[in-house]
Structure prediction request, 341 residues.
Amino acid sequence: MSDKKVFAIDPNLFSFSKNKTRKTRDKPTEDSKIRMKVYKPKKNDSLKKRSILNMIRKHQETEYKNKFDNSNKKTTNDVQNFNSDFKNATDFFKNLEENVTQKASSKPNTNNHTIKQYPTITNPLPNTSYIEPSMINTTLPATLNNITNSIKPAINELPTVINTNVIPIPKYGCLKNGSLPTYRSFMNQTRKTQPDIIGGKPTDIPISVKSNNFASLESSKIKEKIENININKNKKKKMKRKKTIRRTHKIGRSKIMPKVSVLVSNKTIRNNISNKTQLIKQVPIHEIRRYLIKHGFIRVGSNTPNDVLRKMYESAMLICGEIQNHNPDNLLYNFLHDVEK
Prediction:
């Protein structure tokens, strides 16, 4: 027997089908029956959509019936109410005519007449003087007590006085070219100046006499004020504390930062510098670039960032006097490549 082992592999197992589609199924035969989908009733269908829809439809039907019945009843009631209202109105007008005729027949025929205006009585009534009772004996003898006075005292009947206000005649009217002048013409006329009423007793101004209590109160108040003034004078004045503020300024070239600090003692100069820095920040970038190219700090078309250019422009403007770079390479390059001349 040989020591070699032989493995036999079917090559069809490693073959792949060229078509990527699914295998074609066998067509059913003609004898096979057609399958029908069986409808299974859902559980608890009464508590879902159909039951809710049925309830809504029933509710709508009942409402429609009620409305239709009420409309018929309302029409009949409206007709009856209209007939009753119409009868009441006709009866009311008939009664009105009868009442008017009865009142006209009962009233007497009184013609229009003007009321007579009686004049006011200017004569005053006679003053009845009051007679003081004198010392007279009113006791009569016994023989005269039985005699009664048959003469009645005379009663003076005074006429009734009617107070009527007589309206004065107006001095001006509201019509032009009328019997009375207008208000303007009346006011423009010269009138008599009435003299001022001078005379009479001078008005007595009542002088109020202050009581002793009031005077004592005032004197006590004045004394209190004087005492308060004296107390305020005797108080010691508070001494104001003077503050000395010290500020340290490091001047000169710094060892850490690349800068040189200068002390500006004048306050106005410092304010002017701070204002100038704020104005420099508002300068547009194209003007800054144009200034730096002209003075030879940068070349035409340089890609330096805007914040660096703005800082260069700020330091150049804040230094006293104008600064210019005389580098021949930069000047020649800018002269040859500068388009905006």
About this structure: The first strand starts at residue 252 and ends at 253.
